Amino acid sequence: MKKSINNSTNLRLRLPVLVLVLEIVILVLYSCFVTYDDNANAKLQNNETNPMENSLYRDYPFFADVQVMIFLGFGCLLAFLRFYGFSGMVFNFLTATFAIQWAILMQGFFQFYYDGKIHLGVINLLNAEFACAVVLISFGAVLGKTSPVQLLVMAFLEVPIFAVTEWAVLKYIRINDAGGTILIHLFACYFGLGVTFVLYRPSLNEGHVKEITSYQSDILSVMGTLFLWVFWPSFNSALTFKGDDQHRAVLHTFIGLSSSTMTAFALTVVFNKKGKLTMADVQNVTLAGGVTVGASVDMMISPAASYALGVMGCTACFLGYKYLTPFLARRLRIQDQCGIHNLHGLTGLISSTAGICAILLATEETYGPSMYQIFSHRAPPEGDPKLLELQQLIPGLKPGLGRTAQEQALYQVAAVFTTIAASAIGGILTGFILNLPFLASPSDEDCFDDDLFFEILPCHCLVENNPNVL
Description:
Elements: H1 11-33, E1 34-36, H2 56-77, H3 85-115, E2 118-120, H4 122-139, H5 148-173, H6 181-198, H7 215-237, H8 244-271, H9 279-284, H10 288-292, H11 303-331, H12 340-361, H13 364-367, H14 371-374, H15 385-393, H16 405-434, H17 458-464
Parallel strand pairs: 1-2
Helix pairs in contact: 1-3, 2-3, 2-4, 2-7, 3-4, 3-5, 4-5, 4-6, 5-16, 6-12, 6-16, 7-8, 8-11, 11-12, 12-16
């Protein structure tokens, strides 16, 4: 039976008005502040320019790969609930589209501060996609319990908080974070946990009648896992130095993903009472290695170390799903719907620790002069005679801060705590705003149900009301 229209969750005015306001704001800001970068500006091109030297051909393959992860990978992965497949995929589509548009402005604000304009190119779109990934990871914590209006407001607030945190950490703390372990995975995780902490629903701790999967929804979700798995090397290597750094990033990510996948298949059978595979583990735990190698992905950690990190990340992620997620819901009022704390939080902490160890162990004997390019903050400062020697070996090497390995490691630790604190506080404040009554929050009864916000075909209704139909 179709649900009667509930005025508190009716989108007829709420969603169109919000979208219209956001589009007007973005259009005005784009008109005033956004222009082309040097590689997209026709005034700077001439007949002697080699078109293949345009940055498009260097950056677009990574942009396209991350696009697949954002819209197909995340979208399909979030469609694992039996009666929430429309919402999982479509709300991901809506939120991601807006988040990228908004991130171009928010991440370009500091460029505007210095230059008076935001110069747009493919690399800016790629950076905006990473900000979008932050939003979508956080979205996983409140999946099924929020309206599209709430999700747009969440993205509207999270993107600028992320942009400011990213700018402050990179400008003042200055860290190595090639794979985005600290500034993407940890930020997204603890922001999402902060939001879900405020949006806590006591009645959902005992489960919900529609908080279930089906044969078809699990297949769709594992397709999302495969998209993410295949393109994760691009995600981790996109912003690393071109050449051997990027080469190592691809190798380490693939090896880490491979080892976490093998470990996941072993663990899911061992802990299953019937000794069978569990689809939820295949959908999520197999990806842990991609996060765990992130902080050290471009460093000379060795293939064996990346393999070990994949195993460690997978094990922590698996045990987190099994034991930690229920504990957080019962004891700490944190209902982490998709287990983002396991896949992004626990693995992010392991990855950050591994990155710190790699920094402490880095020597010129292992890296050669390129050590001061990879660990740029350890390069000699301006005026140091050693800088001139290094610049003869590595033309274009920029002056650094002259930090020791120990000093850089401490700054990495500071960045971890700063990022977690900023994201958690930002998430809590955002949660209070999302609790406002006019944002169409679904009731406990209506959670995990497409029918609340979608026009559902009659055949779908028959399936919904007949638990014996797959």
